[in-house]
Design brief:
about 300 residues, 2-enoyl-CoA Hydratase, Chain A, domain 1, alpha/beta, 10 helices, 2 domains, five-stranded mixed beta sheet
């Protein structure tokens, strides 16, 4: 088969690398998930029912070549013809095309979107925002797409805010006819492009470790502490911090507020403690309001520019 290239990337490699096999293991939680044949990705557009001009998009199914262009088209159409800005993209996919996952992440980042992967609680996956049955808790046996893994996890990293949990593993060949030396060359090509992408979207070093150290039949999931570090992209955090300097709470005040919140759930606070907690809550609300205003401002700027 003739090898096609695009931007220095071996396009044959994208069809055989970073694909999720029929079974993977979640080592952090100690649970296994069975994944059947995945359907091609579909996109849903849904306005948020709050009287605003904000909507969400859901990607559901296997990631394939062309999905990034399809997403960009959906986003442009939303702004140009529906007069809706997109706030959040829900990502529910077991994975798929490696480079397409990177391309999706770049589109997501360019449009300043929040990414929402499935949530996980009490050994159940939850896919918030999916129309119909996935509004309810969904176990692996019920829907193989209620997960964000492999190429989907790579796309998830493109969010300026990242919610839910996503699982990573290293790139590998699923074609037994490819010689080991060629498979290694293709893996190294994809790895190089992935390194560039991870730098672009601004993620901590441990993400690369999760990818590199999780084998083909495993998924590396961030710990709770790592998820908190991943929640905001570096550039978004810097933009918000600079714009909201007058409202940023000192870290010691946030720590004190957390302690008083915990104490109030167990005991009755003294009047002095309650006044301090009220003061902290007021300051926190001011900071949160500023951060949300800045995020919406940057979202509008990015999407209006890209819709031209």
């Amino acid at each position: 088969m003739k090898t096609q290239t695009s931007g220095g990337i071996d396009m044959r490699a994208t069809r055989v690398l970073l694909c999720l096999k029929a079974f993977f293991f979640w080592p952090m939680m100690g649970i296994s998930v069975s994944v059947g044949p995945a359907a091609a990705a579909e996109f849903w557009f849904e306005p948020i029912q709050d009287g605003t001009d904000i909507a969400t998009v859901t990607l559901y199914g296997e990631i394939q070549q062309g999905d990034a262009d399809r997403l960009a088209s959906v986003l442009r159409e939303s702004i140009q013809t529906r007069n809706y800005y997109i706030d959040v993209i829900n990502l529910f996919s077991p994975g798929g095309d490696a480079v397409e996952g990177i391309k999706l992440g770049r589109v997501i980042n360019d449009y300043y979107l929040i990414t929402q992967a499935p949530n996980y609680a009490e050994q159940q996956f939850f896919c918030p925002g999916y129309p119909g049955s996935l509004d309810e808790p969904t176990g692996s046996a019920q829907d193989s797409n209620c997960v964000c893994a492999s190429a989907c996890a790579v796309a998830w990293l493109g969010g300026i805010e990242r919610h839910g949990v996503a699982g990573f593993h290293r790139v590998y060949s699923v074609d037994p006819t490819i010689p080991a030396t060629e498979a290694r060359r293709m893996r190294m090509t994809i790895d190089a492009e992935l390194d560039v992408y991870l730098s672009e979207v601004g993620v901590p070093d441990f993400v690369e470790d999760l990818i590199d150290h999780s084998g083909p039949q495993e998924l590396g999931f961030p710990t709770g502490q790592q998820l908190s570090l991943l929640q905001n992209s570096v550039d978004h955090s810097n933009t918000v911090y600079a714009a909201c300097q007058a409202f940023n709470m000192p870290l010691e005040d946030k720590s004190a507020m957390s302690g008083l919140n915990q104490k109030s759930s167990e005991y009755t606070l003294s009047s002095e403690e309650q006044r301090a907690l009220n003061k902290f809550h007021f300051a926190y609300e001011r900071e949160s309001t500023c951060r949300e205003q800045v995020r919406r401002r940057e979202l509008f700027r990015a999407q209006e520019a890209l819709a031209q």
